[in-house]
Fold:
Amino acid sequence: MTKQILLSTPHMGDLEQKFVQEAFDTNWIAPVGPHVDAFEQEFCQVVGAKHAAAVSSGTAALHLALELAGIQPGDEVFCSTLTFIASASPITYLKAKPVFIDSDRTTWNIDPNLLREALEKRAKLGKLPKAVVIVHLYGQSADIDPILAACSEYEVPLIEDAAESLGATYKGKSPGIFGKIGIFSFNGNKIITTSGGGMLVSDDENIVKRARFLATQARDNAPHYQHSVVGYNYRLSNVLAGIGRGQLRVLEDRVNARRHNCEVYQEALGKLPGIEFMPEADFGRSTRWLTCLTIDPAAFGVDREQVRLTLAKQQIEARPVWKPLHLQPVFAECECIGGAIAEDLFDRGLCLPSGSNLTAEDLQRVTQAIAEIYTG
Ligand SMILES: Cc1ncc(COP(=O)(O)O)c(C=O)c1O
Structure:
């Protein structure tokens, strides 16, 4: 039977089981414990953040981030449109309204000029958004400096969704640590995983303390159970934090492996007419969490969807680039500023198998299958 090649699968190192065993041996089987504390500290060192709170998912982290940024029902929040729904769904948990912003072609991330123009227009109308959520997509940082400058000028807090970009750099630093709050994900498909999990980071200690408080049912400091506000059950398990500690130690290897995948794909397919890889911006390092490309059907002969289906028949999983959120039925009523670039990237964009555990034979199978589609 032909082996299935999946998009992005977990890849454990040597130490995860030891840390998990430690949790069992000490009976710290709870959403609190020494691995959670150590994971937070070690994560801070890796990304260069001052404080971090480990939580049950990236979505939970973003929900807390928005609440901590003071988002209230009816508020507007600017958000990248080319992304996974979890970048925007927490906006709606708070009964606020997302306003989507298009990407730029060079990074596929939010267009800093469009963002500045939109903030300028809104400032004139006296209708500034309450926060801006930017996404660092597919392992590549957005162009943070002009985004941060625009947000600072209009005094709108910046929240960074770096769920897909742990290990990336922007001018030598990790995305996720520039804004008021940043979030990361350890979902099973991410560059490192705890099966499910997330991290909220900030340089403001009070924000992170408050995140931990809200994530543990917002229990007041009293001998009995007392609550002055409603919180969530969002903390990361000590068992899973053990996996995270092991995974953090192999992050660099995982980045190198994913970048290697992309190099192999570029070498084998980069010269085929109509194929263009997601560019790597010159301001930093993309992890190539997923290797993404666009297919011009006029030059390549068939379109993205035909390529995807042909690969699927050969047990190779490839996926369309994110469907922009402004095209999602659930957000049909939401405003979008621009949108044509994200729509084009969705129409023509494909994510190739990108796991750090792909073998040379796997990569060869994928490149050969695509090359054969071209030559017919
Ligand atoms: C851009 C983006 N934001 C947020 C999330 C949510 O993270 P989680 O699955 O850990 O809730 C994901 C991935 O799952 C993502 O890709």
